[in-house]
Amino acid sequence: MIDVKNLQKSFGDNHVLCGINEHIEKGEKVVIIGPSGSGKSTFLRCLNLLEQPTGGQIFVDGTEITDKKCNINQVRQKMGMVFQHFNLFPHLT
User: Fold this and answer.
1) Which CATH number belongs to the domain containing residue 57 in this structure?
2) Per-residue pLDDT tens for 68-87?
3) Beta strand residue intervals within the chain, DSSP E
4) Residue 35 — very low, low, confident or very high, per pLDDT cuts 50/70/90?
5) Quick one: DSSP state of residue 14?
6) What total of structural domains would you count in the chain?
């Protein structure tokens, strides 16, 4: 299960994610759609902490991964992500 509460991400003065709330149950399929530049990739990167959110909380199976004390590598062992384009990993392009 994934819970997102008031997720925010800014790049300088550019507010990309503004108070995103989402609850995703185990096995549920979710589609994220929107125009280019609307924050879809940023949202996905924040869900796995590939990008550090500016504010808000993300919980995976009850563990708050946005907590500085969280061992994100341990949590990632139970996560899987498949990306359409490798440009979601800036160091690989």
Assistant:
1) 3.40.50.300
2) 999 999 998 888 776 666 56
3) 2-11, 14-24, 55-60, 63-64
4) very high
5) E
6) 1
Q: How many CA atoms lie within 13 A of 69 on its CB side?
A: 2
DSSP 86: G
Residue-averaged pLDDT of the chain: 89
Reported pTM: 0.83
Domain hosting 36: range is 2-92
How is the beta sheet containing 2-11 ordered, strand by strand? 14-24, 2-11, 55-60, 63-64
- The answer to whether 41 and 53 are in contact (CB under 8 A) is no
Residue 86: half-sphere exposure toward Cβ, Cα within 13 Å: 3
User: Is 93 in contact with 83 (CB distance < 8 Å)?
Assistant: no
**The pLDDT of residue 8 is above 90:** yes
